[in-house]
Amino acid sequence: MNKKQMSHLEKRLLEERARVMKELGHYDESFSATLQGADGDLSSYSFHMADQGTDAMEREKQFLFASQEGRYLWHVNEALRRLYLTPEKYGKCQDCGDEIGFERLDALPHARLCIKCKAKEEDGERR
Q: What are the domain boundaries of the chain?
C-alpha cells in the first residue's frame, strides 16, 4: 500500500472517529436529559402504565444504539492504533497475513481480516 492510500485511510478513520464521538455525545445528552424535559411535565414519572413502558423501551433502545456505537468506536481506535504503532501490519490480515484489499479498507477502514478469513469467521459463528 502506498503513502497516498495510507493517508486516505487515516483520514477516513479520523472522520469515522469524529462522527462516532459526535453521535455518542448526542446519546449522552439524551441520557442525561430528564423525562420531565421530554413532555414538559414537572414530574419525572409517567401517569399511565403504558407511558412508563414506552419510556422504558425508548431508553433501552437508545442504550442499545449507544452500545453499538461504543463498540464501533473501539474498533476504529484499534485500527488507528495499528496504523500509528505498527504501520507495516495495518492493511494485513491478522489471521493469514495476506494483504487486505484497498477497496475493502476504503469501505471498512477498521477491517482486520481479509475477505476469505472474515467469511471463515462468520461461517464458524453460524454453526
A: 3-126
pLDDT value of position 102: 93
The whole-number pLDDT of residue 20 equals 92
Instruction: Classify domain 3-126 by CATH number.
Output: 1.20.120.910
Distance CA 69, CA 23 (A): 8
| Residue tagged 452500545 (cell numbers) | 67
The H-or-E segment that residue 77 falls in is helix 49-85
Show the cell assigned to 36. Answer: 420531565
Amino acid 27 reads Y
Ramachandran assignment for 97, one of left (phi > 0), alpha (psi -120 to 50 degrees), beta (any other): left
Residue 92 DSSP SS3:
strand
Number of Cβ within 10 Å of residue 82's Cβ equals: 19
Other beta carbons less than 10 A from residue 77's beta carbon: 14
Q: pLDDT confidence of 77, banded at 50, 70, 90? A: very high
pTM greater than 0.85 (yes/no):
no
Phi, psi dihedral angles at 77 (to 5 degrees): -65, -40
